[in-house]
Design brief:
The chain is mostly helical. The chain has twelve helices and no strands. It has one domain. Helices cover about 65% and strands about 0% of the residues. The protein is globular and about 50 Å long. The protein starts with 12 loop residues before the first helix and ends in a 9-residue tail after the last helix.
Length: about 240
């Protein structure tokens, strides 16, 4: 499969599960490849974001993020993507009360994603992409993080615009993908967030360690070849009624 929508257009849950199984290998590869301010940080931050933070948020009577959690979430986002030190400083300037109030209101507004994103975006240095990362921590069944690599993997969404409108377009396409996979999968555990993780895994692995994908690529090539063979077989003419 190629990178221009290849994985997104795949309808086989087994292929997606194979990609998802590589997530932490790709995180580790990206951690190892990082230099400068990002060097060696991503693996620990990603484990915190994917596992520890959601557990903390969902354990509360009302879901919300603390000031310290938002600051660390921003560090995770900047370490995983484009590093902008100014954003880290700006997000720290939010008051404790405003962070807890905005995030609490946002979770209560779900499943209205537009309203929830708008509410969180009232915080300084928080746009739709960061707001989406916040929502994932307590509602991975409703939201997907607006990771550049995931957005760019979906046909029709480039160039990326960091707007609410563009995020909604992206989320709808991710939700469609999750629904399609759940229709073909007995387990039916595909969420927008898991789709986003797979798209990120596929894109980043192609960029920094394509060998991780070699078995999946071979499997896809076999599938394509089989389809070609089927397509070249003569079709029996049906009798007219």
């Amino acid at each position: 499969m190629s990178g221009n929508g290849g994985l997104y257009n795949c309808k086989d849950p087994a292929v997606w599960r194979s990609v998802f199984a590589l997530y932490w290998d790709v995180v580790e590869a990206k951690t190892t490849a990082a230099k400068g301010a990002k060097a060696g940080k991503l693996a620990a931050l990603d484990k915190w974001y994917q596992e520890e933070l959601p557990e903390a948020v969902c354990s509360r009577v009302e879901k919300f993020l603390t000031h310290a959690e938002l600051v660390q979430l921003m560090e995770w986002k900047l370490t995983r993507g484009k590093f902008r030190p100014r954003l880290q400083q700006m997000v720290m300037s939010n008051s404790t009360d405003s962070v807890e109030s905005c995030t609490r209101k946002a979770f209560k507004l779900l499943p209205d994603i537009s309203a929830a994103i708008t509410e969180i975006s009232k915080l300084k240095a928080v746009g739709p992409a960061t707001a989406s990362a916040v929502l994932v921590t307590g509602a991975s069944q409703d939201a997907a993080f607006m990771a550049d690599e995931a957005v760019e993997s979906i046909p029709g969404l480039v160039p990326i615009k960091y707007t609410l409108k563009h995020y909604i377009l992206y989320l709808e396409k991710v939700r469609v993908c999750a629904r399609q996979l759940n229709q073909n999968d007995l387990v039916k555990d595909w969420t927008p967030h898991r789709i986003e993780q797979c798209l990120w895994t596929w894109a980043v692995a192609q960029s920094i360690k394509p060998l991780l994908l070699k078995d999946i690529v071979l499997h896809q090539n076999k599938t394509v070849n089989k389809e070609k063979v089927m397509a070249t077989r003569p079709v029996k003419r049906q009798k007219t009624q």
